[in-house]
Specification:
alpha+beta, Double Stranded RNA Binding Domain, 18 strands
């Protein structure tokens, strides 16, 4: 009898405590325990209609293969916590390993080295993707055109070329982009931000790719060679445009007159003939032009011609703009130049080839 009394006395106490809110840690344990044993009641089978051994998370509607995976997934959905905070910048993460990867940005630690080129990376996954450059492996193929890629993210962005999807919209001008990285670079047009500076001349750029191409001006590197004529270029896009000279390909057609062009930039400039758009204004006289760049218009408004002698390194772009086979005096006179009558310190007429007199 005494054992029966001892058993019945704590019942009101337990019931009373059930009504109290649980501490956060205890509530998390209860959630985990519930998820792990969610499907053990034989009278109420878990996930009716699913094949045996498959567990459906009711919150995320994901199918899991084990009870343990279901428990972890439900805990993520129900808690939505990011308890691991970076001590440097305060950014939070759901797992300790993700925080560790992030902290290497601040410490500069790159523990995973490529055996081919000794380049180092923060994570094993980044190293794996990099190694595909050496191996040539491209395991992700497009189902539409069969083009292959080194990583799944590149394939996802490429597939948007076929679907036309552009999910990233600029808040400044509502222009849309296929990738978040493209949007980030575009937004710097509005903000004026140019975070990538050249260590040689200090010129700044919106993207790392633009800086890399610019640095080749200093190094003289031209890693992209034409297979037809051997001519080399600083960037891949310049090589592609050049190759169209050999193939005759002109994939960009004008919707007004159907004239075709090798590059999108050429088409854009041409279309301004139809629209009348002249977006580039001269800072000296506010005259407007269809394309950007130095022109004889700017030269004619500057100081006397002696400043632009071929002996001066700054005159190269000026000479490049002059008509081939004519001296600077002849060229400027033919265009009504106010300085055409000046006596110029130039004794020879220059051809397109460097320092080669006609």
């Amino acid at each position: 009898m005494s054992s029966g009394i001892a058993f019945e006395e704590p019942v009101p106490y337990v019931q009373e405590n059930i009504m109290k809110p649980l501490p956060v840690r205890q509530e998390e344990i209860m959630i985990n325990d519930e998820a792990l044993h969610f499907s053990e009641n034989p009278e109420e089978p878990e996930n009716p209609g699913l094949s045996s051994g498959t567990f459906l998370c009711p919150e995320s509607e994901k199918c899991l293969s084990t009870n343990g995976s279901l428990g972890k997934q439900r805990r993520k959905c129900l808690t939505r916590e990011k308890p691991f905070a970076c001590s440097e910048c305060g950014k939070c993460f759901k797992s300790k390993i993700n925080l560790t990867f992030h902290e290497r940005i601040h410490t500069g630690e790159n523990p995973f080295a490529c055996s081919e080129c000794d380049k180092c990376f923060r994570t094993k996954a980044e190293l794996t993707v990099h190694e595909r450059i050496h191996s040539g492996e491209k395991p992700f193929a497009c189902s539409e055109c069969e083009k292959c890629f080194k990583r799944k993210g590149e394939l996802t962005i490429h597939e948007r070329l076929h679907t036309g999807e552009k999910p990233f919209a600029c808040s400044g001008c509502e222009k849309c982009f296929k990738a978040k990285g493209e949007l980030t670079v575009h937004e710097r047009i509005h903000t004026g931000e140019k975070p990538y500076a050249c260590s040689e001349c200090g010129k700044c750029f919106k993207s790392k790719g633009e800086l890399t191409i610019h640095e080749r001006l200093h190094t003289g590197e031209k890693p992209f060679a034409c297979s037809e004529c051997g001519k080399c270029f600083k960037s891949k896009i310049n090589l592609i445009l050049h190759e169209r000279i050999h193939t005759g390909e002109k994939p960009f057609a004008c919707s007004e007159c159907e004239k075709c062009f090798k590059g999108k930039g050429e088409l854009t400039i041409h279309e301004r003939l139809h629209t009348g758009e002249k977006p580039f204004a001269c800072s000296e006289c506010e005259k407007c032009f269809k394309r950007k760049g130095r022109s004889l218009h700017v030269i004619r408004l500057r100081e006397p011609w002696q400043k632009y002698s071929p002996l001066c390194p700054g005159s190269r772009s000026v000479l490049a703009s002059l008509k081939i086979g004519r001296s600077p005096t002849q060229c400027l006179k033919g265009r009504g130049d106010p300085f055409g009558s000046l006596s110029l310190p130039i004794g020879r007429v220059y051809s397109k080839k460097k320092n080669a007199p006609l």
